[in-house]
Amino acid sequence: MDSVLTNKNPIIYPKRTRRSRTDQSSTDEFSSTNRIRDIKDPEHPELSLEDLNVLTEESVEVDDHKSYVIITFTPTLPHCHLPTHIGLCILVKLVQSLPARFKVDVRVAPGSHDKETTVNKQLGDKERVTAALENPELVALLNKMMQVC
Amino acid sequence: MKLMDKNLGLVEVQKLEGHTDRVWNVAWNPAADGVLASCSADKTVRIWEQSSLTRSWTCKAVLEGTHTRTVKSLAWSPSGKLLATASFDGTTCVWENFATDSESVSVLQVHESEVKSVSWNASGSLLATCGRDKSVWIWEVLPENEFECAAVLTGHSEDVKMVLWHPTMDVLFSCSYDNTIKIWWSEDEYGDYNCVQTLGELNNGHSSTVWSISFNAAGDKMVTCSDDLTVKIWKTDISMMQTGEGYVPWTHVCTLSGFHDRTIYSVHWSRDGVIASGAGDDTIQLYVDSNSDSVCPSPFYL
């Protein structure tokens, strides 16, 4: 992995208080956000995607009845070189946690990144995603990002 | 063409269990009734046979231990005796006499990354492969399950998803993540293939990854499907091409949209003229041309 960070001084956002919910059975914005908010940023593993506002509660659109989840994430910088890793990690985390009936779409927030179209197309190609996830080095990186401290 | 009963539907006959991971592709043996092959992310290929007595399907062979990653696609040779498999491990394997003592496997290792598709020409004398390295390879089939590279075709700017030979002529078609369909043709029998046509957005082509191509029985029409959520029909003047006067371009006939709301991965034109499409929305749609002269916008319906 590169030793040069593109974002040396990320803005860290105050943590929102986490509501507790008794009903965890259905999938809604809250539980989907909970599954992914703690994913670690690949460049700053001490910080989560929520800390950096890469993901917020507004990032998640869920329809439990129609079985879909759409995540829109905002890379910290328009030229950040790891949006594919972030998007892939979000995708993997959700596919692992949600029932198989769910269709998960992960995309870059419009206007937030130079390579938005390229990244979105890669994340939307299930064959490319599957092949990428057969790469043990990439899987190791994604697992590190998903480690909850 | 025989009259179609317009009540088309699909009824599940049997669920074949055995693979331990996603099944990417299936292929009917063209020479033997009741023989099917499937390939999977579990790195194996399974051969299924239908009992002529009970009509039920069982697994007759598992081809394993050769591919080290997902097997993405497969194709039977026209004789039904050879089976070619394309894998993410970068190799294409051609199996002969499998599951017997004289089983032989040829391993073609040239692609620099995942191989996505493999196709035999109508006579079984040529094999084509394609992959994420953006190239298309043509192989000459030699005796004793040997293969010799006949051409390396570059031109696509992205991952090539599928290759398919025309059903009657040695013209090769490929479709790609670069949103185009390319047509490769050789003027003479020496196999000097060139890209003679690219069907892109400017020719009413697709606006996102093209996943699959299929021809009608006559070979004068083709259907393609895409991540852009449409299915497109194309045509050519096949009799003119067969006179040997030169290449005749393909043109767009019509675009079928609104039938799927997620990526359409697969499309196939049956010998009876029914088109089937399969998509990420978990549905299969069937289409029939209600008019024997397919002129847009003729209603294609479910």
Overview of this structure, please?
Chain A: Residues 1-43 are annotated as: Disordered. Chain A: It comes from Arabidopsis thaliana x Arabidopsis arenosa. Chain A: Belongs to the MIP18 family. Chain A: Keywords: Chromosome partition. The complex is a heterodimer of chains A (149) and B (302). Chain A has 149 residues and is an alpha+beta fold. Helix content of chain A is 33%, strand content 11%. Chain A has a 3-stranded mixed sheet with strand order 1-2-3. In chain A, a hairpin with a 4-residue loop joins strand 1 (60-63) and strand 2 (68-73). Chain A is globular, with a radius of gyration of 15 Å. The two termini of chain A are 21 Å apart. By secondary structure, chain B is an all-beta fold. Chain B has one helix at residues 238-242; strands at residues 23-28, 35-40, 45-50, 57-63, 71-76, 82-87, 91-96, 104-109, 115-120, 126-131, 136-142, 146-153, 160-165, 172-176, 181-186, 193-199, 210-215, 221-226, 230-235, 251-257, 264-269, 275-279, 284-287. In chain B, the strands form 6 sheets. Chain B has a 4-stranded antiparallel sheet with strand order 1-2-3-4, with no helix packed on it. In chain B, a hairpin with a 5-residue loop joins strand 5 (71-76) and strand 6 (82-87). Chain B is globular and about 50 Å long. In chain B, 39% of the residues are buried. At the A-B interface, helix 4 of A face loops of B.
Unreliable segments of 5+ consecutive residues of chain B: 1-5, 293-302
Strand content of chain A: 5-15%
Give me the number of helical elements of chain B: 1
Oligomer: heterodimer
Largest interface, C-beta closer than 8 angstroms, per-chain residues: A-B, 10 and 19 residues
